[in-house]
Amino acid sequence: MLKKWSAAVLSGLLVVGALSACGGEKADDAGSGTKDDGKITMGFAQVGAESGWRTANTKSIQEAATAAGIELKFSDAQQKQENQIKAIRSYIAQKVDIIAFSPVVESGWDTVLKEAKDAKIPVILTDRAVDSKDTSLYKTFIGSDFVLEGKKAGEWLVKEYQGKTDTVNIVELQGTTGSAPANDRKSGFADVIKADPKFKVIASQTGDFTRAKGKEVMEAFLKANPKIDVLYAHNDDMGLGAIEAIEAAGKKPGVDIKIITVDAVKDGMTALAAGKINYIVECSPLLGPQLMDLAKKVIKGETIPQRVLTEESAFTPEQAKTELPNRKY
Ligand code: AHR
């Protein structure tokens, strides 16, 4: 862990920092620049282990920390905000050099982020955003554009049903209620399909990003709605759970009910290549290396962008067949 600087050295640095600070970097709580024992300690508060995506994300962060020589304190919040807040408070008490976390929901972070700022511990958001108005509470946010992901899903649907006039009944499996990916994937999709009144979302409910809940909710959708044309699931895991429910109901996933999901993890891509899913919008979990790089820059007091966007693609069944052998997660 970094040794705290003497007041004199620190105040000198603050002047230099104040002169050079710009963009997302703040002079008063930027990193101290060098360290005595050569080690940066990062406290990382993970959402949980709810999906294949999350497992890959955790692996990426742990491996990247080791490769970067960063000591990682890791906690799993089991999809509960109060657990994440507790973990962040414990990292503050342990005086880690930097905190990173993937906020389970968007709201309710201002108090604990303020506590980190007061303790002069910089924070990096990964994967999911917070709705805090005060953006000085964190250094940067690295992750996907979830609205764009929802739009890509909607655009595929519009193209798929181009020239057709019959009503298209859509059911939606939302991610964790209040989470940025659930909010944004829903709104991005809705924004695109609203241009054509033949698209009707007849049911929309949370499946909490898990396979089990995806299956359970899809079973209920199938019982309540005799005609479902399309399933839009906010992640692969819920889509894969729903496929089990669709098959158990005697229907053919990908044929009787068209399926669009988000993530593109190996299991999802396998179902896509087999024609059980029709389209997957990619969301990359491999944020570890960039996160460690940004953390080092923050600690050194370097300027970093306030938003770092992840580059992503989307796949049809044919593209999944080509991509599968190279898929790392
Ligand atoms: O925040 C990213 C989302 O969280 C992934 O799409 C989902 O699979 C995960 O649980």
TrEMBL record:
<feature type="domain" description="Periplasmic binding protein">
    <location>
        <begin position="48"/>
        <end position="302"/>
    </location>
</feature>
<keyword id="KW-0732">Signal</keyword>
<protein>
    <submittedName>
        <fullName>ABC transporter substrate-binding protein</fullName>
    </submittedName>
</protein>
<dbReference type="InterPro" id="IPR025997">
    <property type="entry name" value="SBP_2_dom"/>
</dbReference>
<comment type="similarity">
    <text>Belongs to the bacterial solute-binding protein 2 family.</text>
</comment>
<dbReference type="Pfam" id="PF13407">
    <property type="entry name" value="Peripla_BP_4"/>
</dbReference>
<feature type="signal peptide">
    <location>
        <begin position="1"/>
        <end position="21"/>
    </location>
</feature>
<dbReference type="InterPro" id="IPR028082">
    <property type="entry name" value="Peripla_BP_I"/>
</dbReference>
